Amino acid sequence: MPPILPPGLEGNLIEYVQGGEGDWLPFDQKRFYTNAFIIQNDKILLGLKKRGFGINKYNGFGGKVEPGETFTEAAMRELKEEAGIDAPLEHAGSLLFMTKGAGWAFQIEIFSAHSYSGTPTESDEMRPKWFSFASPATSDADVMVPPIPYETMWDGDIHWLPLLEQGRKFVGRIDSVTQDDGEFVMTRHWFGTVISDN
After folding, report:
1. Which of 2, 12, 139, 185 could pair covalently with 195 via S-S, beta carbons 3.0-4.6 A apart?
2. Integer Cα distance of 105 and 96 in angstroms
3. pTM for the full model?
4. pLDDT digits (tens, 9 = 90+) for 51-75
5. How is 59-108 classified by DSSP, letter by letter?
């Protein structure tokens, strides 16, 4: 029997992990965003958000899809603007984020690449830094690369980032509430992997 999917998710999916309790939060519309990650060997390039939504959190490079852009075009534009690099991005997954009281949801299309051109460069919005999927790893230049800083990332990242590293397509939903200090706290989540058609 196929899993019962949270509202807003669709596809041929196998449940990977779920948690939390209560009803899924309602929403009337979706706003579309992208997020791009560079993965090389056991390392991932993340950016520290310097301003705006998500400030002081590490994340991939991305933002809002502009009118007339495809998801891939938006992801490539944001990667160039925020990290100064180009990459042959491929779609890796989809995430739906809902916050209590918002009425709309973030639909974030996740992209990844295993190569890039240019030099990762700090921008007004993001400070790029390599992290290790291992704990810790040695980079090509014999410099210690710190482990992924899940404690300064979004709550749900610890669930789906390993799927991204493994190259497994995924879909997920996270519902959250906003605390008095402005921080988001995950109240319910569901992540699944996409069953291949072949």
Report:
1. 12
2. 7
3. 0.93
4. 988 889 999 999 999 999 999 999 9
5. E-EEEEPPTT--HHHHHHHHHHHHHS-B---EEEEEEEEEETT-SEEEEE
